[in-house]
């Protein structure tokens, strides 16, 4: 080989440079004083903490620039704790940097790999011992052992069975039945068409049979948005148009993307927007997706009025509400 | 011998006669730790974990992990009389009626953010310096595991207060679970104990948050540190530092004081943030209700990239034999993160396959000397940044007067185009830095001083580098590319010829380097000067 590829040689560790405090007694004394002062600052922090805990009223507020009006009790507890901890740290680090040995020392490494003879020893030990157990010679034990070990894991898994019920039809059903009244949320009052002006929007729930309490599980599926526009603004096929009533149209409020509440209605554009991932639905076209990651329109609830003039559902939702799942269309 | 020494001696003797620990301790106390600011990132991770354990334990004394409906009667007037879960009510109680409770909640939350940020920074340090190479692959994998679990743990903790914001996060997590083909609905019903939100979820994630995952963290962190201890720390290259030694400060007392002191500094800074920087003001959001939502819902930052991916996904849903496959959820929510984390875990093995390098490495790389790796890192960071930006698209839109549509299209295109661009640019930067190093070694440092030569020409005076500096700039290895192995020595065609070709192609790209100056180059140059 030519010597072209010889790398530059290693000049070795640079010489140690002494710090001031190593050579100058005065500098060392000064460093010592500084460390002591830092520890004392920590003591002051703890005192502040104790004072704040006992002496500052829990609902005392102070005005602090940038932060605005702040709870004084929490603020000074925090500042005291922060000081108490921080200055212990600063003192220790300053001590280490100025006064403790700063000579770099060298330690040597060994390869991680064991020595060949140790490895051979290990292999032969394992072989010998395994041979003594005689697994290879007693296939019956081996097979039954594997079988039992394989099966024993089933029990704990089975025990998890009661973690939850099976879904059944739960994901596909809501409390909306034919003739269920729409009631305000909050308030639970039935609604007449005249209660909602053109341009208005309201959140409604299905009226529950007497004695049934509304749980969050119900709200997670039943929530419906009621929107009123001028009937001529609809751009719907005949069936969907028949699901509206005098310009009132109802959609599931649970986003067809990942289930957030679709809460923002823009009156001018007649768009519904989900704040989670900005899926945008066009109210005039049966909540068609016009932007964002959702792949489906919001399910539409057919509405009409009952004999007393209150808004009711004409029929249940004709598809599951909320995010998609594997068996959704089955 | 002073009295104190005598007592200490007796205690030490008592313990050693029963444990034989003196020998081990002696070795331990003189163990050498190399020093560099970037080695403190891992320490921050460890310390913030300890802070999480301490502050979290404090919170458990009052927190009530129950979805039972209660009426709020605490001292925060605006919510007075409202129906809410006991979990939310107890979180309000901690915030308003436990002295120092809000401080502890805020310390816990800030520590969680610092924990995650320090973990990411630590991981980048390890990646860009090549510290994951043999023999440290196990620790790299443990690190990727800790990062993944950290995201889960943080998300679960964020969900515990059961406010409107965190409930919305759970809703989205439930939709991801439900979207899993075939078993999704079953999984979701098992996890939630029925239909969403049910009445079980908070108490279940509580056990995971305070027992299961912290236990796993503790085990993984212990193994991680034992390996660091046993394999000894890597060190940055420089004069006197070799693959066979480790240069630094002994554990006792210097390193102990620095590391111990640093723990208090990290704790102090976290406490300061908890004192002055409000975080997750749950009382503003109100209790969770699936029919309501707050505008501008934002997850913590370590979830932001996932959120951004979900937001930019095209609205695709497929139907197979009447079954629904939610590609718009599965691809950004599970498949892409799965690929990223698997790829990250496997990277050490991929790199060593490409370079064919199976040796141990204890000296770190300067990032410029591993251009492909550095470029790959820059590419991944760019990807994450684009997704993170899209995760905040609604905030950006209102702050900078853009339309969400514009940001969405920027992100959709950017997430595909910008990462490769970052790769190419970073690689070029690395190579120019290598060239600059070569120039420095060969021609010395420009001093800015001009001298006039006898015939009137001006030249700038170059100062030769110190041997230490010159060594630092040239100590790295430059591995040759691996050739494709098309046939063996008997001319029999290699059955894995395609694999071999791919590898050689990658290896050639990996080996693109600016040749470093050799001793001879320098000598010739010196000869030329005289
Ligand atoms: C890596 C570890 C951990 C992370 C990343 C983490 C993260 C979080 C986060 C982000 C919160 C929400 C805080 C808020 O804004 O109210 C939280 C809440 C909570 N965490 Fe942790 N945590 C961790 C470990 C622990 C441990 C070890 C414990 C207990 C032993 C714990 C107990 C709690 C409790 C009780 C809450 C509810 C507090 C409330 O609602 O007011 N955490 N956690
Ligand atoms: S949940 Fe509505 S857009 Fe994602």
Automatic annotation (TrEMBL), chain A:
Transmembrane segments: 35-54, 74-96, 145-164
Topology of this chain in the membrane: Multi-pass membrane protein
Annotated GO CC locations: plasma membrane
Localisation: Cell membrane
One Gene Ontology term of the molecular function aspect: 2 iron, 2 sulfur cluster binding
InterPro entries: QcrA_N, Rieske_2Fe-2S, Rieske_2Fe-2S_sf, Rieske_Fe-S_prot
Region called Disordered, residue ranges: 170-190
Ranges of residues in domain Rieske: 211-312
Keywords: 2Fe-2S, Cell membrane, Disulfide bond, Electron transport, Iron, Iron-sulfur, Membrane, Metal-binding, Oxidoreductase, Respiratory chain, Transmembrane, Transmembrane helix, Transport
Family from the record: Belongs to the Rieske iron-sulfur protein family.
Function statement: Iron-sulfur subunit of the cytochrome bc1 complex, an essential component of the respiratory electron transport chain required for ATP synthesis. The bc1 complex catalyzes the oxidation of menaquinol and the reduction of cytochrome c in the respiratory chain. The bc1 complex operates through a Q-cycle mechanism that couples electron transfer to generation of the proton gradient that drives ATP synthesis.
PANTHER family to which the protein is assigned, alphabetical: CYTOCHROME B-C1 COMPLEX SUBUNIT RIESKE, MITOCHONDRIAL (PTHR10134)
Name of the featured protein: Cytochrome bc1 complex Rieske iron-sulfur subunit
UniProtKB/TrEMBL annotation, chain B:
Cofactor requirements of the protein: heme
Top EC category: translocase
Cellular localisation: Cell membrane
Pfam families registered for this protein in UniProt: Cytochrom_B_N_2 (PF13631)
Stretch list, region Disordered: 509-530
Membrane topology value: Multi-pass membrane protein
UniProt xrefs under SUPFAM superfamilies: Transmembrane di-heme cytochromes
Main location (coarse class): membrane
Single Gene Ontology MF annotation: metal ion binding
Any single GO BP term: respiratory electron transport chain
Tagged with keyword Heme: yes
Protein name: Cytochrome bc1 complex cytochrome b subunit
Source organism of this protein record: Actinobacteria bacterium BACL2 MAG-120802-bin41
Taxonomic classification: Bacteria, Bacillati, Actinomycetota, Actinomycetes, Actinomycetes incertae sedis
């Amino acid at each position: 080989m030519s010597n072209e590829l010889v790398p530059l040689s290693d000049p070795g560790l640079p010489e140690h440079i002494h710090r001031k405090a190593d050579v100058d007694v005065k500098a060392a004394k000064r460093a010592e004083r500084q460390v002591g002062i830092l520890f004392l600052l920590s003591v002051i922090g703890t005192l502040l903490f104790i004072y704040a805990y006992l002496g500052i009223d829990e609902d005392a507020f102070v005005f602090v620039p940038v932060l605005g009006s702040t709870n004084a009790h929490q603020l000074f507890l925090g500042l005291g704790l922060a000081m108490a901890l921080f200055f212990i740290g600063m003192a220790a680090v300053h001590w280490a940097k100025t006064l403790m040995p700063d000579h770099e020392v060298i330690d040597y490494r060994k390869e991680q790999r064991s020595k060949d003879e140790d490895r051979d020893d290990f292999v032969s030990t394992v072989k010998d011992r395994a041979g003594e157990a005689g697994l290879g010679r007693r296939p019956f034990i081996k097979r039954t052992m594997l079988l039992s070990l394989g099966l024993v894991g089933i029990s704990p898994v089975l025990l998890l069975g009661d973690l939850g019920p099976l879904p059944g039809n739960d994901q596909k059903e809501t409390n909306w039945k034919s003739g269920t009244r729409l009631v305000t949320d909050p308030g639970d009052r039935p609604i007449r068409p005249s209660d909602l002006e053109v341009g208005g929007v309201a959140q409604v729930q299905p009226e529950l049979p007497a004695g049934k309490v509304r749980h969050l599980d119900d709200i997670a599926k039943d929530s419906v948005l009621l929107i009123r526009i001028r009937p001529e603004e609809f751009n719907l096929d005949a069936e969907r148009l028949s699901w509206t009533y005098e310009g009132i149209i109802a959609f599931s409020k649970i986003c067809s993307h990942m289930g957030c509440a679709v809460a923002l209605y823009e009156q001018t554009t007649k768009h519904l927007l989900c704040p989670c991932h900005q899926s945008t639905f066009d109210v005039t076209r049966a909540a068609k997706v016009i932007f964002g990651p959702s792949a489906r329109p919001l399910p539409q609830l057919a509405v009409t009025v009952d004999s007393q003039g209150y808004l009711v559902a004409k029929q249940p939702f004709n598809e599951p509400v909320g995010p998609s799942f594997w068996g959704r269309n089955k | 011998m002073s009295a104190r020494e005598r007592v200490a001696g007796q205690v030490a003797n008592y313990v050693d006669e029963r444990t034989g620990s003196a020998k081990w301790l002696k070795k331990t106390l003189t163990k050498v730790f190399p020093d560099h600011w970037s080695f403190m990132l891992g320490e921050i991770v460890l310390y913030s974990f300890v802070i999480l354990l301490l502050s979290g334990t404090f919170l458990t004394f009052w927190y009530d992990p129950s979805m039972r409906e209660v009426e709020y009667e605490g001292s925060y007037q605006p919510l007075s009389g409202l129906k809410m879960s006991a979990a939310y009510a107890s979180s309000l109680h901690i915030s308003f009626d436990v002295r120092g409770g809000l401080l502890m909640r805020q310390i816990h939350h800030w520590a969680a953010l610092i924990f995650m940020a320090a973990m990411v920074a630590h991981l980048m340090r390890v990646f860009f310096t090549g510290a994951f190479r043999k023999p440290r692959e196990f620790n790299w994998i443990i690190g990727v595991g800790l990062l993944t679990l950290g995201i889960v743990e943080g998300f679960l903790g964020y969900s515990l207060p059961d406010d409107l914001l965190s409930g919305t996060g759970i809703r989205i997590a439930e939709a991801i679970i439900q979207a899993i083909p075939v078993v999704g609905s079953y999984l979701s019903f098992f996890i939630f104990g029925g239909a969403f939100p049910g009445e079980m979820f908070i108490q279940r994630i509580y056990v995971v948050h305070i027992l299961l995952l912290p236990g796993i963290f503790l085990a993984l962190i212990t193994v991680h540190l034992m390996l660091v201890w046993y394999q000894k720390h890597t060190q940055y290259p420089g004069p006197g530092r070799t693959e066979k030694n480790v240069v630094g400060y002994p554990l006792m007392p210097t390193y102990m004081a620095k590391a111990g002191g640093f723990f208090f500094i990290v704790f102090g800074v976290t406490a300061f943030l908890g004192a002055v920087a409000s975080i997750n003001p749950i009382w503003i959001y109100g209790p969770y209700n699936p029919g309501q939502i707050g505008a501008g819902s934002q997850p913590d930052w370590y979830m932001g990239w996932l959120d951004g991916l979900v937001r930019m996904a095209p609205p695709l849903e497929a139907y197979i034999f009447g079954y629904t496959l939610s590609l718009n959820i599965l691809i950004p929510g599970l498949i892409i993160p799965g690929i990223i984390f698997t790829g990250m875990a496997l990277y050490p093995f991929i790199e060593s396959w490409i370079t064919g390098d199976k040796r141990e490495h204890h000296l770190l790389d300067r990032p410029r000397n591993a251009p492909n790796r550095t470029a790959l890192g820059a590419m991944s960071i760019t990807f994450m940044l684009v997704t993170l930006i899209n995760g905040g698209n609604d905030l950006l839109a209102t702050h900078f007067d853009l339309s969400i549509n514009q940001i969405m299209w920027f992100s959709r295109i950017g997430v595909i185009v910008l990462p490769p661009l970052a790769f190419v640019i970073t690689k070029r930067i690395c190579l120019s830095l290598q060239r600059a190093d070569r120039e420095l070694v060969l021609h010395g440092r420009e001093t800015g001083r001009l001298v006039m030569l006898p015939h009137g020409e001006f030249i700038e005076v170059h100062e030769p580098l110190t041997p230490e500096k010159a060594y630092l700039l040239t100590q790295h290895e430059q591995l040759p590319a691996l050739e494709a192995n098309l046939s063996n020595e008997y001319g029999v065609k290699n059955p894995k010829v395609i694999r071999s070709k791919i590898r050689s192609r990658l290896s050639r790209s990996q080996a693109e380097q600016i040749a470093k100056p050799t001793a001879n180059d320098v000598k010739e140059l010196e000869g030329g000067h005289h």
